[in-house]
Design goal:
The structure is a homodimer of 244-residue chains.
Chain A: E1 5-10, H1 15-27, E2 32-36, H2 44-50, H3 54-58, E3 61-63, H4 66-70, E4 75-79, E5 90-91, H5 94-105, E6 110-114, H6 123-127, E7 131-133, H7 146-162, H8 182-198, H9 208-219, H10 224-238
Parallel strand pairs in A: 1-2, 1-6, 2-3, 4-6, 4-7, 5-7
Helix pairs in contact in A: 1-2, 1-7, 5-7, 8-10
């Protein structure tokens, strides 16, 4: 489904932005890039900034007009730094846009369109769009670099995609450290409690102090291994305490 | 509150990444940049890529170690491409991280720490952190450019901030086109219905067809002005219809 999502760049001036866009796309699982009348492409600078995403550059299509780039799309979202007066449906939040795009992308191609670095999209190009989206930003300085805007919207699309049950996306996890059983944890608490008294730390047997320290260790959720290390530490202290 | 959030870059190799980071920060309202032992700074390339955010570069602090950069912070989130085996509390999702950071930033400095382009953070540097976060990405190619990672996490922090009632953030809106009153809309519907019959389009008076087309115009939510244009169009057609 991410394969039906097309990133369209219109008349990009800096080839470096094309390369950085390709990289931003690939990190978010997007591979379908279309360039409308780029100033300089192919270009060494694009290749350099694409890093490991040169395959996205190589498969990019170059066309002469935006109409050509999106004619088969069922949804065309124009990204702009500020709202235009043409009242297209507008997404205030990129995450709302992404949910809509992911829904439509099940069925047919969908495009996210980005304009020129300085002047964005023309009114004629906005007319090719079905929706607009802006990235909420600092009102005093809200113009993101082109490839950064692509990165954010691609990230939101990826996020909407992975939140779907059928995406099968799994988080990278380190090998899960097994938690201890309640019995093992109980042994630790008993050991700790005993040493709190034996060491002279607890002068009053029913002080809240013991509860608070026990709560700290509970909250830390030690793994089985960590608990075993703690027990070892307690035993090392214990060896120096007077017998009771 | 965004001012208590610090972006820390550790031993950045490419000065361009420092500049692009400054720009990414400023678009998201962050201004507090600390550089730990950058390879090349200040540098023309940093200034060039900072675009309108050179003020962030100028106020950046340069320090010799990560400990120095974060010693007064109450929360230090290390951004890494993959989880380390050191079991720090980990945010699977940047938005969860951002909510936590925004909460803590009310009270005291909080840092987001980014490592070297190639090797990330060392284990000693991870030990300076209280949390880790990764940006979920393409498992086949998940290493974002450093400044792109900053852009995404800064965007999420800004998002968590603006969702708070007290942020006072308002979306840019074009001048609101006034909606028509129900009476005005009713006149339009009556006009349209009349012409559907007069033109011979509706052959059966109670067909669902009229409902469906009326529903389309309702859904379009025409402004007062647009409704007036539609009425004008209907009148232009009407002038050519046989009198009834």
């Amino acid at each position: 489904m991410l394969s039906t999502i097309r990133i369209v760049l219109v008349q990009t001036f800096h080839p470096g932005n094309i390369g950085a866009t390709a990289r931003a796309m690939k990190t978010m699982g997007l591979t379908n890039l279309v360039l409308v009348n780029p100033r300089c492409f192919p270009d060494e600078e694009a290749t350099r900034l694409a890093a490991g995403a040169t395959d996205v550059l190589e498969s990019a299509q170059v066309v002469a007009s935006l109409e050509e780039a999106v004619s088969d799309c069922v949804q065309v979202v124009g990204a702009s730094a500020r709202l235009r007066s043409l009242p297209l449906p507008h997404f205030d939040e990129p995450d709302e846009m992404a949910q809509s795009v992911i829904q439509n992308a099940h069925q047919a191609p969908v495009a996210l369109v980005f304009g020129r670095e300085r002047s964005g999209l023309t009114n004629d190009e906005i007319r090719c769009c079905t929706h607009q989206v802006s990235i909420p930003a600092n009102p005093d300085y809200g113009i993101l670099n082109l490839s950064q805007a692509v990165q954010i919207l691609a990230y939101e699309v990826h996020r909407a995609w992975r939140k779907q049950a059928e995406s099968g996306f799994t988080y990278q996890r380190p090998l899960d450290a097994t938690p201890p059983s309640r019995e093992q944890f109980g042994h630790f608490q008993a050991h700790l409690g005993r040493l709190m008294q034996q060491s002279g730390f607890l002068t009053q047997p029913h002080a809240r102090t013991e509860e608070q320290l026990q709560a700290l260790f509970s909250r830390a959720q030690p793994s089985r291994k960590e608990l075993s290390l703690l027990r070892g530490l307690l035993s090392a202290f214990e060896a120096h305490l007077p017998d009771k």
